[in-house]
Specification:
Number of strands: 11
Number of helices: 0
Helix content: under 10%
Oligomer: single chain
Order of helices and strands: EEEEEEEEEEE
């Protein structure tokens, strides 16, 4: 079982950047996937990006391709989500997910 803790959310203007981190503790497997999801007010939670824990394979939602980058920081044991060229429609609570476990979420607000 793993424990997940997101950080790095905040308020940013349209076109700006933010970097989210998901700290992972507990037992992991090289073949685990860690995913970022987001949920905007009144909408369902949606997939954003994922990375294999071994850190090689990545995949993205079409809406964030070319703007977001998911990566692993081995020194900190985190999975990071670098978000560039942010848009107001990126406003949501961002969650990380691994082994069917969710973090508590971190709010990202993008103003127009």
């Amino acid at each position: 079982q793993v424990q997940l803790a997101e950080s790095g959310g905040g308020f940013v203007q349209s076109g700006g950047s933010l970097r989210l981190s998901c700290a992972v503790t507990g037992r992991t497997s090289s073949f685990d996937d860690l995913s970022w999801f987001r949920q905007a007010p009144g909408k369902e939670r949606e997939f954003v990006a994922a990375i294999r824990w071994i850190g090689i394979h990545t995949r993205y939602a079409d809406s964030v391709k070319g703007r977001f980058t998911i990566s692993r920081d081995n020194t900190k044991n985190t999975i990071d989500l670098q978000k560039n060229s942010l848009k107001p429609e990126d406003t949501a609570v961002y969650y990380c997910n691994m082994q069917r476990t969710w973090g508590q979420g971190t709010q990202v607000t993008v103003s127009s």
